[in-house]
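The aim of this short unit is practical: by the end, you should be able to scan a pair of folded records and say something sensible about each. We start with the first protein, listed as its amino acid sequence and then its structure tokens.
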Amino acid sequence: MFDKMIFNAQIDFVRDAERIARKHHLIQCTEGNEIYYQSSALSNIEGIWWKIRGRTAQIKCSLHKLFWRSRYGTLDNSQMFTISDAKQIISELLDEWDINPEQVRITYYEVGLNIPVNHDPIEYISLAESIGVLRNKELFNDANFEKNRQKTTEKSKNIKKVFKIYDKGFEARDKGRMCEGNILRIETIYRRQSINLIDFFSEDSINNILHTFYRDWATISFRRRLSADKGVKSSQIEKAESLLRLGRDEYMKHTKSDWKSGYLSDKQYRTIREFIQSWDLIKSHFLLLPSSLETEYRSNLLSLFNKAKI
């Protein structure tokens, strides 16, 4: 389930830098009087990027892609990738890197799940509105992609945890890679971290990460269809939709603003205000129904998560 990760390892530059650089085919660079090492353009093919500067060796890679390359020869992260797979590949990488794991800290990591779906992922993404028990993290269209191909929560520099839902096939093709079928990708990104690698891969830590991942993505809110009892007027259904979409206080605020601006008559304003005030008495006449896409998502999330966490 782990994808891209960034590792910072503390080393002795005089003793270790040149040895590591030779082993991993890094190029020597200079800036003023300072010498440092970093990967060449071959890192795009190898799937690992290195930079050694001072006492820090930084490594960026996708555990998912490297696992797939080691087993099947291609840098692919569109398939199933379990926790057991992640533990295997990190153990292999640590042996290959020849760096003391006690001196390695994880500063960035992604936890995700690929969900094969029956329809174009754009249909699921378009319905996704927010995430969180309180629906307090809104999902926005990512301006770097076609509309409803990728949505994320706010990702300003000070936010350490970001949620992302996107069309995995579209993303792969956009980068010139092949990806068959309809795959919806859900992902949690943790930035600006500082976690000891050994502690990170402990059983307690992994269990906590997995529990949090499932809890978060089970709370995703999809736009639903409003159903009403027979005899309920269409105007009341419209008011109910607005109230459920905005919330009681926000709907009242918008209504009052429209009334003061002259968009609503006194009668229209009173009618909406009375509807909001009586909502607790009449809300049983309305029901939000999940779409078949939401039902499919929730079923697949549970079954695939149970496979991936092993």
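Turning to the second protein, read its sequence before its tokens, just as you did above.
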Amino acid sequence: MKVFFTAVWAIICLVILFYGHSYWSDRTAVKAEIEKKAASPANKASKQTNEPNYDEFLAKAQNWPEAARQQFQQKLKQKKSFKILFVGSTALGNKDQGMLKDVIQQLNDSYGSDHLSIAVHTYDVTSSDFIAKNDQLEVAAEKAQLIVFEPFLLNDNNKGNVRDSLNNLIKVIGDVTRTNPDTTFILQPSYPLFAAKYYPIQVAKLKQYAAQNQITYLDHWTSWPASTDKTLNDYLLPGGSGPNDKGNQVWSQYLINFLIHK
């Protein structure tokens, strides 16, 4: 009898060991399959699609001034918003109309509103009036990392000399960067005029100033008909009071191509 019970107990132990081994083997196989799937390229790609592609953003920003691009990279890593501020005359338009409407829409579509903060400040003044009213302090208060500035040269046309315009520009940049040392400027002229004489000279001086001071200059006039070409009027409102839809498209497309490299 003792031998019988010993044999039965041995059989029970063997059964328990067999099922235990089978259970852990199955669990190990399932775990290995899960890990295999997790490590598969398809699964990794799926995870990556849930995260922003920062390298792609930086590639699109390759035309930006290097200092601004480095700040953008830092903001992306910190998951903070990079601020772009457009400043100039009312010819720029705003988020809802004019040249800047398409620019801002394309920036948001390309970089995402989570990564860019875009603001616009326009003024119907000369550069001297801008300084007299201390409007540059309002610009500085925005604490933007990148400012695209159209420094009122067209408004200054026939109301002062280019030396005054450049001195006013220097003061704006100085006051803003004194408050925000990390702010980077990009300069651009306003829209061109047909048969203008003094205005193109002002713009040429602005371009020269930008080159001498290593400030990025948006030479969008190269995309318009020449100021001596009558067809330029086809891009302007009557009397040259501003760009029409055709002119806004030319101007905005130049900025889009620069700010969003493809």
